[in-house]
Amino acid sequence: MVFQDETPGAVVIWHNPACGTSRAVLAAIRTAGIEPAVVEYLTTPPARADLVEAIAAAGLTPRSAARAKEKLFAELGLSEASDEQILDAMIRHPVLINRPFVFAPRGVRLCRPAETVQDVL
């Protein structure tokens, strides 16, 4: 799993091509003249340690990094779950990971709304 590309100045996006916000962020990165490493995290999910690190680096909690509006979130009873239980669910079901996460030299952000990608480019 690519958490961060070790190449100086590299940008990595955890991307879901079915998500409009994720597509908009990817387009904004490319418009800025950067070709990022694109990780389709639904097919190549992050390791637990990478997910924990990404969430912390973005200044989030597992709950704030989860897609609480996803039907599965409710089905799994995660509204009252602990951070550890939410992380476990995110690892088992990557669709619960909010997107897109962008890793860049200026930091890590969960780019929702899409304009927040400018903070790290």
Automatic annotation (TrEMBL):
InterPro entries for this protein: Arsenate_reductase, Arsenate_reductase-like, Thioredoxin-like_sf
Source organism, top-level taxon: Bacteria
Molecular-function annotations in GO: arsenate reductase (glutaredoxin) activity
Record bears the keyword Hydrolase: no
Record-linked CDD domains: ArsC_ArsC
Catalyzed reactions per annotation: [glutaredoxin]-dithiol + arsenate + glutathione + H(+) = glutathionyl-S-S-[glutaredoxin] + arsenite + H2O
Biological processes per GO annotation: response to arsenic-containing substance
Keywords: Arsenical resistance, Oxidoreductase
Gene3D superfamilies reported for this sequence: Glutaredoxin (3.40.30.10)
E.C. number(s) listed in UniProt: 1.20.4.1
PANTHER family reported for this sequence: ARSENATE REDUCTASE, ARSENATE REDUCTASE-RELATED
Family the entry assigns: Belongs to the ArsC family.
Name of protein: Arsenate reductase
Lineage of the species this protein comes from: Bacteria, Pseudomonadati, Pseudomonadota, Alphaproteobacteria, Hyphomicrobiales
Designated gene of the protein: arsC
